[in-house]
């Protein structure tokens, strides 16, 4: 069950919140630049592998449309003008580059099933796909992993490369109202109310998979955080604005190089 934001008054004064826009075009430009930056960050983390991986953001005006990276373009080179606007029928409404069929099959169904989801991220990251082969959920063995405690799902119905909408529907159904899912024998997928949140959940989930795999290598019994403490920690780390805020230092780092802002 996804963790809601705590009341605004609980946040420190001058806490940076996601910006609000009165103009749709201004918001769209912002989202496309933020999405481009998220791809650059994923590229720096080494989450790209061949042509696999995609992040999407729902268009602020046309809610049944989303922006996505084109098929076969490096995460490190994507510009706002390269992004594709796709509707839930699979039509490329804006953009001239090819569409990744798997990206459409998965993301269209998640966006359709979850009106609250603004952004979704999926990549074939090394530790995520390695952990997915275990066919189990993350254990609450670290503070960071507690952000996903009782708030992620296991999709254990792998049937090959996702090319059909039916597979995307099954993934969306398994995800339910959680912030993330482990796609068995495949990798990770995360969602959020902002691009920042979805990207951060993916990054910290990948690191949590790495931590658990390395802890398992010791051969020692894993010491899990108890249920009550894990739930308390999740409430403090796992809400949407926490995900948004955790992403900001990475956004600041990538923003130093302003080349990605260019059209």
Task: Tell me what you see in this structure.
- The model has no long low-confidence stretch (mean pLDDT 93).
- The chain has an eight-stranded mixed sheet, sandwiched between helices.
- 41% of the residues are buried.
- α5 packs across α7.
- It has 263 residues and is α+β, with helices and mostly antiparallel strands.
- The chain contains seven helices and eight strands, in the order αββββαβαβαββααα.
How are the secondary structure elements laid out?
Elements: H1 24-45, E1 54-58, E2 65-68, E3 84-87, E4 92-94, H2 101-113, E5 119-123, H3 126-132, E6 152-155, H4 165-175, E7 180-183, E8 187-192, H5 195-217, H6 227-237, H7 240-255
Helix pairs in contact: 1-5, 1-7, 2-4, 3-5, 5-7
Family: Belongs to the aldolase class II family.
Organism: Aquimarina mytili
GO cellular component, one term: cytoskeleton
How do you describe this structure in short?
With about 260 residues, this protein is of the alpha+beta class. It has 7 helices and 8 strands, in the order H-E-E-E-E-H-E-H-E-H-E-E-H-H-H.
What is the distance, rounded to the nearest whole angstrom, between the alpha carbons of the first and last residues?
Answer: 38 Å
Q: What class would the helix/strand composition place it in?
A: alpha+beta
Largest sheet: 8 strands, mixed
SSE ordering = HEEEEHEHEHEEHHH
- The gross shape turns out to be globular
Please bin the fraction of helical residues.
Answer: 25-40%
Low-confidence stretches: none
Count of alpha and pi helical runs:
7
Total strands: the figure is 8
Overall pLDDT score:
93
**Radius of gyration over C-alpha positions, nearest whole angstrom:** 18 Å
Strand order of the largest sheet: 4-3-2-1-5-8-7-6
Indicate the proportion of strand residues: 5-15%
């Amino acid at each position: 069950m996804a963790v809601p934001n705590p009341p605004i008054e609980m946040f420190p004064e001058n806490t940076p919140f996601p910006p609000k826009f009165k103009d749709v075009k201004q918001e769209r430009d912002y989202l496309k630049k933020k999405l481009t930056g998220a791809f650059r960050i994923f590229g720096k983390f080494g989450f790209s592998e061949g042509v696999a991986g995609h992040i999407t953001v729902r268009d602020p005006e046309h809610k049944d449309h989303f922006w996505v990276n084109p098929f076969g373009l490096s995460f490190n080179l994507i510009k706002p003008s390269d992004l594709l606007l796709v509707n839930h029928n699979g039509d490329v409404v804006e953009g001239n580059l090819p569409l990744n069929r798997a990206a459409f099959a998965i993301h269209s169904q998640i966006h359709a099933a979850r009106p609250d989801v603004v952004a979704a991220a999926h990549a074939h990251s090394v530790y995520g796909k390695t952990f997915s082969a275990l066919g189990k959920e993350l254990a609450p063995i670290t503070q960071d992993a507690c952000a996903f405690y009782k708030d992620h799902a296991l999709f254990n119905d792998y049937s090959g490369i996702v090319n059909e909408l039916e597979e995307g529907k099954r993934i969306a159904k398994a995800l339910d109202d959680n912030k993330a899912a482990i796609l068995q024998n495949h990798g990770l997928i995360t969602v959020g109310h902002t691009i920042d949140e979805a990207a951060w959940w993916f990054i910290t989930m990948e690191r949590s998979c790495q931590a658990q795999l390395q802890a398992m290598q010791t051969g020692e019994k894993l010491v899990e955080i108890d249920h009550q403490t894990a739930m308390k920690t999740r409430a403090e780390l796992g809400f949407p604005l926490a995900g948004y805020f955790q992403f900001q230092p990475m956004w600041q780092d990538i923003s130093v190089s302003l080349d990605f802002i260019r059209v």
